[in-house]
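Continuing the batch. This is chain 6 of the set; chains 1 through 5 are on the previous pages. Same settings as before, nothing changed between runs. Recording input and output for traceability.
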Amino acid sequence: MMEQFIYQLRPTRTEMLSEGPTEREAAVVAEHFAYLQDLLGQQVVLLAGRTQTTDEQAFGTVVFEADSDGSARQIMENDPAVKEGVMSARLFPFSVALWSETGPQLRPL
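Output for chain 6:
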């Protein structure tokens, strides 16, 4: 049975959000987005998004399913943003309690 998890992401350099990313950061974030899109297509990721703040409180989250704690950690650690040190991440067991049938309105990043 699949379990649910959430990982929280924070930029390792806050200025990436307030002043703009470096060329390297922009490339890694693009890889990060493609990674999450791929996991969404595999029906692993349930939801991914970020706060719209640009200060030290800013964070992103990924809600997903995995068959074990180890698999969940591997998914998080294989995220290019985490792997390349552009973002730090923390993993938590999670349980979706309510889910809208219509879902949220998708917004561009």
